[in-house]
Amino acid sequence: MRTFVATALVAASLTGVGAAQSDSKLQGRIDSAHEILHQLMHTSDKGIPLDIAAKAQCVAVVPSFKKAAFVFGGQYGQGVATCRTAKGWSAPVFIQMAGASFGFQIGGQSTDLVLVGLNRRSMDDLLKDKVKLGGDISVAAGPVGRNSTAATTELANSEFLSYSRNKGLFAGVDVSGDEVNQNQKDTTSYYGKEVSYEKVLNGSVPTPPGAVHFVSTVNELFKRGKANEGK
Predict the structure, then answer these.
(1) Is 154 exposed, middle or buried (0-12, 13-18, 19+ CB in 10 A)?
(2) Which bin fits 140, alpha (ψ -120 to 50), beta or left (φ > 0)?
(3) Residue 147's domain spans which residues?
(4) d(C-alpha 222, C-alpha 224), whole Å
(5) How many independent structural domains does the chain possess?
(6) CB count, 10 Å around CB of 91?
(7) Higher pLDDT, residue 206 or 107
(8) Residues 6 or more apart in contact with residue 92 via CB below 8 angstroms
(9) Which one, of 40, 147, 45, 37, lies nearest residue 82 by Cα?
């Protein structure tokens, strides 16, 4: 009995440590996403144009999206997403992005990605378990600068515009072929219970204290865009 109790206590202790590490990892991902957007807002000449920000319906941030290759190429990243509701911006959900390529290539790099959804279909697509950018949903490299001057048909018809940050500089980036997946495991872990993406993204789940700064920064970016309309 003593052995059983001791084993149970050790197991419980290890479980608690594992949970704490998991919570810290997820909080770190949200903090990184917030920092990326915060820096983006202070890069007016090379950031997301205000007229694009004003149209935002969903925003996804993938910190440290990694690309590595040796003949076969691969890319992978973990991030968070929020969508606009009638009451403001929703609490975040966790997502994954992955892709693959083939060719004679050697090297690797890490970059921060930001995806801006421009219509309500972008939220509908985030509610699917997996979607392929450039396939299931349209995506284009986003323009940069204080205002968008590239009102092309491709941009106008895209559900998402994609941006990357490398060495502090933001630029449009082509992520066609990559897949966006729901990360239900991390979402459940962060909220402490299983919640659907639809319930979170439609605003039915309160924003946890640890995610308020991220959601507030997305909202501030959107508000700056709306305030710029008509100028």
Answers:
(1) exposed
(2) beta
(3) 2-228
(4) 5
(5) 1
(6) 25
(7) 206
(8) 30, 33, 80, 81, 82, 200, 207, 211, 214, 215
(9) 37
Tell me what the pLDDT averaged over the chain comes to.
81
> How confident is the model over 12-35, as a mean pLDDT?
72
pLDDT of residue 11: 42
CA distance 54 to 48: 10
Per this entry, what is the length of the chain? Answer: 231
Residue 140 pLDDT > 60, yes or no? yes
- The yes-or-no verdict on residue 173 having pLDDT over 50 is yes
**Helix 212-228 crosses helix 2-41 at what angle (to 10 degrees)?**
20
- Torsion angle (degrees, nearest 10) of CA 83, 86, 88, 92: -30
Residues 6+ apart with CB under 8 A from 160: 115, 116, 117, 118, 122, 133, 137, 138, 139, 140
Q: Quote the pLDDT of residue 49.
A: 85
Number of H helices, E strands in the chain: 7, 8
User: Is pLDDT larger for residue 88 or for residue 164?
Assistant: 88
Contacts of 82 (CB under 8 A, 6+ apart): 58, 59, 89, 90, 91, 92, 93, 201, 214, 215, 218
DSSP code of residue 43: -
pLDDT at 190 over 70: yes
Residue 102 pLDDT: 44
Alpha helical stretches, state H, the chain:
2-41, 50-54, 120-126, 153-157, 184-191, 197-201, 212-228
